[in-house]
Amino acid sequence: MDTQASKKLTLKLGTGFQHAKVTNSTGSRYNKSTVGRMIDHIYYAGLNSRPSWSTANRFLDLFDHMPITAQWNLDALEVPAKKTKINAKKLLLAENNFVSHNRFTVLAEAEMGLNELCAGLIDTGWDQYARLGALDAPGETIKTVLSKNTIKKIKKRRKKFKKLTKNNCPIRDYIKSKSNANRSIKADRKAQNAKSIKKIADQILNNDSKSYWRYIKSYTGKSSQSIADGPVYDKNKNLTTEKHEKIKIWTNHFGELAKDATGNSRSTDKWENLISSDCDYYPECDSTILWSDITDALRDTPNNKAPGADGVPSEVLKLVMTEPSPTSSPAKLIQKIINLMYDTGDIPQCLETSVVIPVPKKGDLKDPDNYRGISLIPTLAKLVAKIVATKLSKIDAKYNIIVKEQAGFRNFEECAGQATTLYEIVRGRKIQNKETWLCYIDYSKAYERVPHMALLHKLRSVGIGGKLLNMIKGMYDAPKIAVRVGNEVSNPTEYLCGVRQRCPASPVLFDFFINDIFKGIRGVRDNDYKRGVDY
Fold first, then answer.
1. Helix axes 171-205, 209-220, angle to 10 degrees
2. S-S: 315 plus which of 88, 239, 260, 457, CB 3.0-4.6 Å?
3. β-strand pairing of 480-485 with 353-360
4. What is the greatest pairwise CA distance in the chain?
5. Which of 272, 342, 286 has its CA nearest to residue 466?
6. pLDDT at site 331
7. 366/241 Cα distance (integer angstroms)
8. Helix (H/G/I), strand (E/B), else coil: 27
9. Locate the Reverse transcriptase domain: which residues (predicted)?
10. CA–CA distances in Å: residue 377 to residues 216, 284, 480, 485
11. In which region does residue 445 sit, left (phi positive, over 0), alpha (psi from -120 to 50) or beta (all else)?
């Protein structure tokens, strides 16, 4: 493909890339018997200016093609700050040193406010991670599949090339060295591909789907983050490639979803008149949070998940999971913070903000509407939400609050059972030559449409109250979201409507919210049979 054809292709794809002209090259072409294939394809996006210059270097032998170099002004480039993250494996090796740090003891015994305690736990943890060498600063690593023998052949080829440029080597000797190096490179890559295929096969046989998909994404270079960091349409369908403008577009997109368009989401008066909340609440709503509740929630929390804005992964809190009672200082501090949150219904400010990451669904991936937002919630807030969800599920199991037609997000229930029941009903009616009418409802942006006050009043109307309801109210008092695209994170905005994606409590809260949708549609009588749902 020559230069003009490549320009047409990028315009057709709508990638937003710009082409930089190479001064001493007339375009891509195959040079037949001449050394090298010329390439002048430099495309760039997200920079504030064109390159100062770009040129082909005819005096380096790196590959089959002549390398090209481009230079930009430093003002047009922004060097991203190195991000540090916690290495859970290194921290596990120094577990005793971490949990025995005296700063945790001081915090556990101090009479401090909830905000100070939570901030102290996070800050002390980060100091400890640095002291124990459990922090990593991910950098660019260069991995090669080439063997030592192949690397020697490449070095020999380069020496021949340098002599060739000075007319000190016959071209036949260089071509021979080049052919030997290329054959060795192909052999190494073929061996690496065979090794990768065997590895994938082992992962599939061992049901290790996570490692399998990680390999697929690394092989294709298409992770959800790399896709979301690409060009994106604004509201006027103009394609944007500049990173600050893209952040604004994504922030506005998710901000609109979290906005209270009707003004009723937080209106108490609106929902008091529509939903009765005069009933008594179940005594389990005021039951205290036991240490076993905390450890059970920690055991149910998966590892290797992206942390929230605090950067603390779940593996850190799980260091105290095996304690039968809170004996270490971090365990006492964690229990103290969680009980304070549950008793007061307050959420510390450092746990209010969730980081939203766009994850592609289907359709044109330059359109923000074809993405769903996944919330990265701080680990401690996620732990509290998991405890709340467990309490709600136990109350529902005891008092049968959620109707049996609702199988989603419930223990010991599954959609396969619902589908089987539906199949048997349709099959039985078909045998009797009877018509069956089905109604499929797909909620559009379902989680984002739940009004906060309506949810609270709905919970109160079915007997959820006391400390449990206050805790849920605290979770939705002042939540905020910040959007992360690539390495850029936007400023936090208010989350005024909807339950949060990926929050452990959201599925069961949504079940409670839509529970009464089944009233009045419990099926029809068919001769002497009972109602449709009991068919």
1. 150
2. 88
3. parallel
4. 101
5. 286
6. 95
7. 10
8. coil
9. 340-535
10. 27, 26, 10, 16
11. left
Looking at residue 81, the DSSP 8-state letter turns out to be P
Torsion (CA) 144, 146, 148, 149 in degrees, nearest 10 = -160
Is 55 in contact with 68 (CB distance < 8 Å)? yes
Strands 53-56, 68-71: pairing kind = antiparallel
Q: What's the confidence (pLDDT) of residue 394?
A: 93
CA distance 121 to 127: 10
Taking the C-alpha atoms of residue 452 and residue 476, their distance in angstroms, rounded to an integer, is: 7
**Helix 466-475 × helix 452-461 angle, to 10°:** 170
Model confidence, pTM = 0.73
Q: How many residues does the chain have?
A: 535
User: Which phi and psi angles does 320 have, rounded to 5°?
Assistant: -100, 5
- pLDDT per position as a tens digit, 389-448: 999 999 998 998 888 777 766 666 777 787 888 899 899 999 999 988 888 777 777 788
Task: State the CB neighbour count (10 A cutoff) for residue 451.
Answer: 21
> Backbone phi, then psi, for 482, in 5-degree steps?
-125, 135
Beta bridge mates, 71: 53
Residue 9's CB: how many other CB atoms inside 10 A?
11
C-beta separation of 530 from 420 below 8 A: no
Burial class (CB in 10 A: 0-12, 13-18, 19+), 251: buried
Q: What contacts 315, CB < 8 A, 6 or more positions away?
A: 86, 88, 91, 92, 303
Terminal-to-terminal C-alpha distance of the chain: 65
Q: Express each pLDDT in 123-175 by its tens digit.
A: 999 999 989 888 887 654 556 788 999 999 999 998 888 888 888 888 888 89
**Other CB atoms within 10 Å distance of the CB of residue 514:** 16
How many whole angstroms separate alpha carbon 449 and alpha carbon 266?
13
415 neighbors 425 (Cβ within 8 angstroms): no
